[in-house]
Structure formats: C-alpha cells, structure tokens
Amino acid sequence: MGFSSQRGLRQSFPATLLPYFQALRPRQWTKNLVVFAAPLFAFSLNWQTLADIGLAFALFCCASSSFYLINDIADVEADRRHPVKCQRPIAAGRVSIPAALCMAIVLLGGALTLGWRHAPALGIVLLSYAVLQVAYNLKLKHTPLLDIVAIAMGFVLRACAGGAATGLTLSPWFLLCTAMLALFLGIEKRKAELRLAKGRGGKTRAVLRRYSLPLLTRMESTVTTGTIMSYALWSSGPVVNGASTSWMLLTLPFVLYGVFRYQLLSDPKPASRQLAGHESTERPEEVLLKDFPILATTIAWMATSFAILFLQHQGGLS
Predict the structure, then answer these.
(1) What is the pLDDT of residues 61-114, one digit of tens each?
(2) CATH 1.10.10.10 fits 30-169, yes or no
(3) How far apart are CA 179 and CA 176, in angstroms?
(4) Residue 26 — φ and ψ, nearest 5°?
(5) What pLDDT score does 200 carry?
(6) What is the pLDDT of residue 194?
(7) Burial of 16 from C-beta contacts in 10 A (0-12 / 13-18 / 19+)
(8) N or C: the chain end with fewer CB closer than 10 Å?
(9) CA distances from 146 to 54, 141, 143, 156 (A)
(10) What is the C-alpha separation between 305 and 91, in angstroms, rounded?
(11) Alpha-carbon dihedral sign for residues 15, 284, 242, 251
(12) Taking a C-beta distance cutoff of 8 angstroms, is the pair 121, 164 a contact?
C-alpha cells in the first residue's frame, strides 16, 4: 500500500502543477524569441552571446507571464462568462487567486532583479516593459492608435533586450525594421479582433468601436510598405550602412512571403479561412505555431541568415 501510494503521488504531482504552468500562457512565449534578433542582425553570434540571449529570453518569459497572471486575476469574472476564456486555470478555479498573485510577484520581481544583476541595461529594459504593461492595461488599451503603438513597443523592447543582454549597440536599421514589423502585427491583431467581434453580433470592446476595417486596411498598407522597404534597404549591405554584407538580400524573399502569407491568413474570404482561420492573426504566437508555411518560412530565413553569417566569418563572402 505504501509503495502504491508513493507511486500515485508521483503520478499526480505533475498533473497538479499543470494548471499553474498553463496559467503562465507558455504558447505566448514565442513572442519573446524577438530577443534573438539583435545579435543576428549584428552578425555577432557566439556561445557567450547565446547564453546571454538565453537568459534575456527566460527573464522576458517570466515578466510577460507575470502580467498574464495579473490580467487573468483582474478579468476573472468576465472570463468566467466567456465561452473560451472560462477554461483558463484561474477562471476555472484550478489556480486560486492568491496563488496566482504570489506567482506574479515572484516572477516579475525575480526577472527585474536577475536582469539588473546581469546587466543594468537589461534591467532597465525589463522595467520599461513592466511600466508599459501597467500603462497599457490601465489606459492605453482603451485609447485608439496608442493601443497599437503600445503593442508594437512591447516587441521593440523585447528586441532591445537582446542588445542590452549582450552589450551590442543597436543600429537604427534594426530598430526601424523591428518597429515596422511590430506595428504590422499590431494592426493585423486589431483587424482580426474587429472582424471576430462583428461575427459575434457586434459586441466588442469600446476601443474597437473606434476602428473600422477600411481604416485598419489603409494603416496596414502604409506599415507593410515601410516594413518591406526598411528590410530591403538594410539587407542591401554596407552601401547604405546596413547589413555587413549585401548577400543578406537573399533573405528578402522570405520576408516578402512571410508578410504576404500573414495578410492572406487575415483575409475574410472563405478560401482564406480554409487555410488557417481568419481569426488566427488575433494571436501572432498561434500563427507561428500552427501555420506550417509561416513556420517553414521563419526557419528558412534563419537558416539562410546563419549560412551567410558562417560563410562571411570564413572569408567566403564580402
């Protein structure tokens, strides 16, 4: 009996912890992969750099999860009335509010402390992200245009964390490309939310009522052009003080396809919905995980960039 009880305890222990892990929303950690962009753009990758970026990634996962917990605590009553969000661990009662609050405090406090001890610049970036999240949840998410800018700034700060953790100086091109792509994702997110809200009978948050699909489409067109042009100019190489080699132009087709594929997934037409569901662009992390062409394009872009980096270091490219 004693052996059976111990075995049952060992089997139930992971199952007991699972709701707490799910409450951290690990699927959304894919957003934090942006921290790896800075050294890749700078063509500065080594074991020490990878270790530093790995730490920055882990700390951003802790910081972002702390705010997911806080949001779920604040919205627990509304989530319980939602057909999908009611299944979240806090709303479903599988994680208590006091436990979730303790987790949030430990995760955020630990991230800020470790980030500052590793590099003060990284601590400042993490603190800026925390301040942004507080401002977003209290005010900015209810303010048209600023809500999209705040979403984009979250990605930009993640990218800056990669430079802060490794001591790299971020180029204006890197910041411009990151900002343009982040704005693109923010606009696509709002488009998907607005279209989904209309499909549910028009019930939506107040900020979405200030937007229209024609307006968001015009904004999308402007930002898409900026995204592609800024990346194309950067990849042109030293002639425009961009990448260290113009061979990076070989990666431009992957960026073009990735942007256009994302727009295809956000299209409301039935043919597009059959591909992945037009609501998917409401959650960029879901697109990366579930849409194979997007995932394959991302991997191909990374593989090509690493190959160019390796060949340049070997003296095979100029």
Answers:
(1) 999 999 999 988 988 887 787 777 788 888 888 889 999 999 999 999 999 999
(2) no
(3) 5
(4) -60, -25
(5) 61
(6) 82
(7) exposed
(8) N
(9) 31, 7, 6, 15
(10) 43
(11) positive
(12) yes
